[in-house]
Design a protein that fits this description.
- It is a single chain.
- A seven-stranded mixed β-sheet has the order 3-2-4-7-8-1-9, sandwiched between helices. The protein has a two-stranded antiparallel ribbon with strand order 5-6.
- The radius of gyration is 17 Å and the shape is globular.
- The relative contact order is 0.27.
- The chain is of the alpha+beta class.
- Helix content is 22%, strand content 34%.
- It has one domain: Double Stranded RNA Binding Domain.
- A hairpin with a 5-residue loop joins strand 7 and strand 8.
Amino acid sequence: MRLFLALALALTIAACAGPERRPASGADVWGELEAGLYGEIGEFHTLRVAPPEGGSRDFDMERAINKSLARRGYETGEDAPHVLRYMLQTALTDSTDEGPGFLLGGELGSSSGVNELGIGLDLPLLGGGSAVRRVAFLFELSLEGPDGALLWRGRAAGRTHFSEARRIARPVAPLLIERLGRATPPRAFAR
């Protein structure tokens, strides 16, 4: 359990630590994404979509991921040997905050997409003055082989105005899935 909590903290810090990039005009979700290849993938056309080990399913996120997979020619099935795991970690943050957001409690893969208790601090004494209006996020897809080994991982970290998981997953999942099976350097995105 401590390892799981340490992982949650590390993911939150990674999602919030970098300087915030200003979104393109009209963008609802923006940040940086990258993908890494960790093993020989081989040929596959069917995947099983699942939350992290021990996590609860988020059917809205799974729908967004499955739709993106179908557009790329992949099928999904409960008995597929390759598993595409999803994870979304969020933290509330101030609209002008370029550092880490403050996160108390929370859980990985929460069905609401927002941690149970996230607090963005905005202290007027420190030059703040705006309300908490943004959500920092880390959205990750990882492909596991039939033996459970990690083969590929795609990550997107950024900011959004949304707090619902499905509203983050809908624009970001297609960007990661088009990189499925390939390593790509970090690049900015805005949707």
